[in-house]
Protein 1
Amino acid sequence: MARKSYKPQKKGTGRHVQLAEWVIVSETWATMPTGPRALYIELRRRFNGGNNGHIFLSHRDAAKALNMGRDTVSRYFKDLIERGFIVVTKGYFLGPEGIGQSTHYRLTEKAHKSKPATKDFMKWRQSKKQKPRRKSYRFGPKRGFYRVGKPCHIYI
């Protein structure tokens, strides 16, 4: 016999996405821009506890869910893969009837099949890149533009 619920009028809180504290305080998460963070949360939303390695989200669906362009979302996917939050388990392809199949992903913070979580993003370190110097241009003789130090031979 099933037990009656404590508050029968409540239907439950619904689905939610929970991020672990150790993920949020990691250097990788702290240095990641907000766009890839939102995409990761969308991927986590599609994780149901047993489908790790089979989580699929096309770039078109991700762009629609995040209200962004497909090219922007593509950069976000590359950033998540580079930082080690997700791994591609099966690439995209054209199915037998000509219907496209999207890429399948695995979340590295969760266990996959009988293997423990790899947590690849914990090994990621930010490289110290120098900011590119802005080229400064000056208006030169003969109404042309000269780069400071070297002429760029553009005349109007």
Protein 2
Amino acid sequence: MSDRTAPKTTERERQRDSAPTYTAQPQEFTPKEIFKFALFHHRKEKPVHWKDSKELHRVMHEFPGIFRAVMLELLDKPMSRHEIRDFLNRMGIGRRSHRIRTAQLDLEKNLCKAFEKKVLEERDGRHHLTPGGREIAEHMQRVIPAFMQWVFSPETASLFSLVVHVVLSVLKLSIGFLSRSAGLTADGIDNAVDTLSSLLVWLGIRYDKEKLVSVFIVITMFVSVGGVALATLNKIIHPGPIQEGLIAFVVSGICGLVMLGLSSYQYVVGKKRSNFAILCQAVDARNHFLTSLLVCGGILLSFFAELWNAPWLFYADAAASGIIGLLILRGAVELVQELIKAGEEGAEVSHFMKRTEERTREKILLKWLAGQLQSGSLTREELERRFAGDFCAQTPKILILSGMGYRPESGEDLHRYLELFVEQKKLVLDEGRYWLVSRS
């Protein structure tokens, strides 16, 4: 007990010793096993400074997430109020400013609560973690990376995709047959085929057969094109109004939003783990979102066909179904080309999340540069020193543990974006100094 309350090791040694030991040998444990171990180890071993693990978690969750990030920083060194506020400002670079603003305004209240809960104590104008507060922070330091590794593992992503596809395929096919919507039925057929694909991806990841699974995914996509073609042909031969059009419209719209979220998640996992099969699923889920927009358009036009007595508009649903088939066919052909060309290694796919990440980095760097150049011009060398200090040397621990957020390891990003912002006329380079262009 005395060793926990009065550690004599240096800060660097303590950080090294408290780092999760599982990261050095990922081949021995699955992400799920790692997460379970990190999550339940406190429940098996009674906390030293809290009554039980429930009390530890209850106290921890009484504080907002950003203040818990402050507690992680206090593991390394005590901080004054001003240093805590500087840390919050660094956390706010390029992120949701209202959350940081709230954290700044509520800092005094959260500090008082931390003193009351005996999580923090103040000595010589600096805030220190109490033994109980250190136990909470060390618990977060173990659980956060384990949880993130589990959430962003290919196995978890494929299993989650399987569940989503099962639910959506049942929903779309049921409402599609009930409403006689060829577009929604075609989308449901594609979702049903993707259920099989998701199962194959999960099995392929589990048994290390991802390349073989990719071939099966392509085959099932070609099969789904046949099913969609039959639904389209039936609608062309028997055109008619869509029954329960409002329900079909709402279901298609909700399913589209679900697939948009799923596609974003799959893309992040695929990029983090360099998993080509998951990246392919991300592209397919993105196509489902676009498909849902087409289905909604077809249903809307069918409604106007009845309203305006224009029977030819009934064929819009068949057209939407046909376009869905072409989208699936195009995706299958692209996958065949990618499989022949490169396989998994270094695969790149076109995806909206790639552009979103690029825009986010651009926004973060521009906001930071605006703050640096607000009071006057700076040279590239001066900007490089400040960039290294703000981004590389002082990366918030929560970003390191979670693996999320913008965390450049060198000044290459700064060089690239300086050139980009000069080209976009957001900065001016004059005699080796950068100036911020005023925006009206």
